[in-house]
Amino acid sequence: MRCQIALAACHQPDRVLHTLELEADASEPLSRALWLSGKLRPRALCGGLGQCGRCRLRFLGKAPAWQSAEEAVFSQAELAMGWRLSCRHSLGELGDSPCVLLLPATSFLQSKEAEPVTKRPACEKFLLALDLGTTSVCWQLLQAKTGQCQAQGQFLNPQAAVGSDVVSRLAYARSPSQRQRLATLVREALVQAIACHADISQLALLVLAANTAMAEIFLDCDVEGLCAAPYRLGHKGHEWLTLPNFPPIYLPPLPGPFVGSDVTCGLVPVLAEALPKPWLLVDLGTNAEFALMGDELFLASVPMGPAIEGIGMRCGQLAASDVITSFDLGPWGLVAQCPNASACPRGISATGYLRLLSLLLRTGLLSADGHFQTTQTMPILRKISEQFLQSAGSLRLNLPHGLFLEARDVEEMLKVKAAFATALRFLLAAAGYQLQDLSRIVLAGALGSHGDPSDLETLGFFPLGTASKIVSYGNTALAGAARLALSESLRETLWTLCRKAKVLSLTEEAGFQSSFVAAMRFGT
After folding, report:
1. pLDDT higher than 50, residue 112
2. What total number of domains does the chain contain?
């Protein structure tokens, strides 16, 4: 069906900012159609679960009937005013007449005209390292002659409109036209991101670090081999590829269907440190990716879902200066902390959730099986327990600044912990090591940079006594991609190493599922 929609900001309902002509199947979720239009700022959406509430909008005029799930997000007064979750309604519900939708002002893309232009001379050439994550896209622009970093940045992957995890992206990308839609979105976003520093024509090459699904979608290649067993890859990596209007693209090794070039690029900066073997590299995101380097290289990944990045949690947000990143216990109860102490926090980051759950577990306000403990005797804990209340049939802990922690948020993080801990145990067993044998555990990515290893240990991601082995290396995928862009010999060395690696399919191992269920407890 074809649908005409006028978009306006909630604080200026009479001023139309965009008019969209959407043509899609009548059953397509409204949120997906809107955010894939490219007219709205990319947001970390929960993909139709109705949990995050970030796809909220208000119908100006007749609104579709609300669903029960929306009653947990909006008050009865807000529902009566026409507020809805766009992920819960389809294009077909809009009808044939033009529709005016009101969105929060932060949903709209801002003009790029006011941004300063710092482009270098057209004759100058650059190398681009790209870490294309399921949630975030990080890039680094290097001068081709000197190898010095010219600029770097990060933006939310605009493909998040179709879901926050790899599975939802693959399901959407099975259709060639839809896959092209996703590829175009992220390519255009990348070109815009570097536009203030260099033109795409100034790039001599691009090194792509990405999980296998993100790589194949970016390249607009058939993803059917990643959608059903027996899984297979369209690319093996260590190859040069071409895309229209892009420089030559180097795709680092892709050792297995779910072990991508983000893992292999991540090896590069760690190998340069010459750590005593065996050591373990772990990158925690929507997938947990492992590289265990001993006498042999073992590679593996396991799906964990977006909760570890703060997505899908009711108050979850990607880390920012006005987002809570930690909690402490003060004389009057829980104290929230965010980088900008003067800001009014708008949500909780993944590290904030980990610290909060760790704190609740240590004080006995949360049981090992993930249940809130409302009966307390210590005065300070009794004061916190007074903030527990029933909401929409579920227990909720009210937090500072109007935020809250729901029982289902705890359950989501418990699933993440169980998947990670089970995968780690099976990986070590397959490689013939005990955890105490490891010289270092290298945490990569944003969580590795900002998380506290003691929280991961308290919650049971790692066994007790492990925190002292954990070190953070930041974004190893991006750092590795940058090094590969500068060195042909390093690309050959990495390919030789990865060709001999043993790739493990941990979730297919006998007993994995039963071990996962048994690991659904914090601290064990």
Report:
1. no
2. 3
